[in-house]
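ARCHIVE CARD
Drawer: 12
Card no.: 0347
Subject: one protein chain, sequence and derived structure
Cross-reference: see card 0346
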Amino acid sequence: MIPPGRREGGPEEGASGEDGMGISGRISITGLRAFAYHGCTPQEKERGQNFLVDLELEYDISAAAREDRLEKAVDYDRLAASVRELVIRERYDLIETLAERIARHVLDATPASWVRVKVRKPEAPLSCEVAEVAVELTLRRHG
């Protein structure tokens, strides 16, 4: 007889990783807002502007799912705060550089196997009107 709340071949095998198989999970953080001074023009360097960051990362969530404990998971509040601090603290001419630094930070701070970062500039000073400009990149862990 199968106990209540458990399926045959059950969650303990599939969700816990006890069967030797990991569970790949993704976290996404969208629209992380920070006011900063990235850009090539004197206006951007002096006045600053809003930046929006989107993150998606993948990692083995087996231990977090099995134990239901935050310390076994990626704490997305701490991750978002640390990324926001990086965006505010550093200054780069190119959002390509900012996106790459964010991606490396995420891989250093988490067990993610890969991270996708999108940095958006909704107030980019262009010669024509656009909703935003953005750079998106994916960085994978090797080894």
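Annotation on reverse: The chain is about 35% helix and 30% strand. The chain has a mean pLDDT of 88.
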